[in-house]
């Protein structure tokens, strides 16, 4: 009995670590927006969102654990060149291009805007000053490793959960209003739209990077057996998945019932900030602001540090410190375009790279079945790339008529899932070729 309790305690600790890694400020802003826009179709849309925001990250963690904890090792199964290019794109996406600037914008939208006088938010100065001060602190913490970040991490997860739980319970006991009407693509294809909106959490991409953190944690516990590592990772992933599901469903409900009280808004940061004020008054804003600021600091330091370490390893002649400074300055600049712009700019890129990550991840889980045959990876990823590339173009309103006419015959093309069938066919053809060549 004692051994069983110790096993559960150790595995639960790893699960909570993984949950803490996933739960950043970015995860807080998308479910409320989905809740508002999905309206009466909230359940269908949320199921799609949970698949890409919870289910697939869980599979990604397992895939990377089986591959030895390193994303580049996993991507090298396609080719070493692909491994470097794809891994670099993933790091930049969850780093200075989108995820890190998003932490600066969320800090401003939730932590600063609710306390500014009316009319001042239309001026560029408040956001600029906030971003400079925010990233100056991030740079200091990342250059000078400090126990502060560890301490923030230890109190962050329970604090965020407590705030979300308070908001969720209050929204159920005394709802702000009824669900509004679905808008946009949620009126026609709520499941597919929720599925694609789950890309914005970037949790699948993050999971591919977090694998090495979990592996190091398990080795620190004295666990070196690969089978035990994978089993523990699966258990930890289930714990993290349950936690994320609770967060997403709660925040989705808050957004879904908020429109009567706060009106229709264009980003989840505003929705959750105004909902906190509607539910708990000014005190709600203060508590939410402090918690989100801590979350943003912790997330930004971790992501910038990981990026600087990876690219320093890739280009050893350029120092870690140099990469860190460049990425921090770049993130500061991107932050000033605003949260809505960052989100809308990230979606085309995520439409291009997310399907590649998902296909790579799923194939790696069945790697033993086809003995790591390179041709299977290549023939599955090539058609995936050509379809997802145009999904990104389409999101940017770039239309290529011949390209589009060819892709329109694909099942699920209108839902940005046209890559699914070509990926499956490519994998099957690759498997047949691999079997023939092996014989």
From TrEMBL:
Transmembrane segments: 45-65, 77-99, 124-143, 155-176, 196-218, 230-251, 286-306, 318-339, 345-363, 375-393, 417-437
Keywords on record: Amino-acid transport, Cell membrane, Membrane, Transmembrane, Transmembrane helix, Transport
Keyword Transmembrane helix: yes
Domain of life according to the entry: Bacteria
Subcellular location: Cell membrane
This protein's record includes keyword Ion transport: no
Broad class of where this protein is predominantly found: membrane
Membrane topology label: Multi-pass membrane protein
Pfam families per the UniProt record, alphabetical: Branch_AA_trans
Similarity comment text for this entry: Belongs to the branched chain amino acid transporter family.
Family annotation (NCBIfam families): livcs
Function: Component of the transport system for branched-chain amino acids.
Protein name listed in UniProt: Branched-chain amino acid transport system carrier protein
Taxonomic source organism: Lysinibacillus pakistanensis
Upper lineage: Bacteria, Bacillati, Bacillota, Bacilli, Bacillales
Gene symbol of the encoding locus: brnQ
């Amino acid at each position: 009995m004692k051994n069983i309790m110790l096993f559960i305690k150790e595995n639960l600790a790893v699960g909570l670590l993984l949950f803490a890694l996933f739960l950043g400020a970015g995860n807080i802003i998308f479910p409320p927006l989905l809740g508002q826009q999905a309206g009466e179709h909230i359940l269908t849309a949320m199921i799609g969102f949970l698949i890409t925001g919870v289910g697939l990250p869980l599979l990604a963690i397992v895939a990377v654990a089986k591959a030895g904890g390193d994303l580049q090792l996993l991507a090298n199964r396609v080719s070493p060149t692909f491994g470097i290019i794809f891994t670099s794109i993933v790091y930049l996406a969850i780093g200075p291009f989108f995820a890190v600037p998003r932490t600066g914008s969320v800090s401003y939208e939730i932590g600063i805007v609710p306390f500014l006088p009316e009319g001042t938010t239309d001026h560029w100065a408040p956001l600029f000053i906030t971003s400079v001060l925010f990233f100056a602190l991030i740079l200091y913490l990342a250059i000078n490793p400090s126990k502060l970040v560890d301490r923030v991490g230890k109190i962050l997860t329970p604090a965020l959960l407590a705030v979300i739980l308070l908001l969720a319970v209050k929204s159920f006991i005394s709802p702000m209003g009824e669900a509004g009407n679905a808008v946009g693509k949620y009126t026609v294809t709520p499941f597919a739209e929720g599925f694609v909106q789950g890309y914005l959490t970037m949790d699948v991409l993050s999971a591919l990077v977090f694998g090495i953190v979990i592996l190091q944690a398990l080795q620190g516990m004295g666990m070196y057996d690969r089978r035990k590592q994978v089993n523990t990772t699966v258990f930890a992933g289930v714990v993290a998945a349950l936690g994320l599901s609770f967060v997403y469903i709660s925040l989705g409900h808050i957004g879904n019932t908020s429109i009567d009280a706060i009106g229709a808004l264009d980003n989840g940061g505003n929705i959750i900030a105004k909902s906190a004020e509607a539910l708990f008054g000014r005190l709600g804003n203060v508590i939410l602001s402090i918690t989100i600021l801590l979350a943003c600091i912790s997330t930004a330091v971790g992501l910038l540090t990981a990026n600087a370490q990876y690219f320093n390893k890739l280009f050893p002649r350029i120092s870690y410190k140099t990469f860190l400074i460049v990425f921090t300055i770049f993130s500061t600049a991107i932050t000033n375009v605003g949260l809505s712009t960052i989100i809308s700019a990230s979606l085309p890129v995520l439409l291009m790279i997310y399907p590649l990550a998902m296909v790579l991840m799923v194939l790696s889980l069945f790697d033993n079945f086809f003995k790591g045959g390179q041709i299977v990876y290549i023939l599955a990823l090539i058609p995936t790339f050509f379809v997802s590339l145009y999904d990104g173009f389409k999101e940017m309103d770039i239309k290529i008529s011949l390209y589009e006419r060819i892709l329109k015959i694909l099942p699920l093309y209108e839902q940005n899932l046209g890559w699914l069938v070509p990926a499956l066919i490519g994998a099957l053809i690759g498997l047949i070729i691999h079997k023939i060549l092996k014989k």
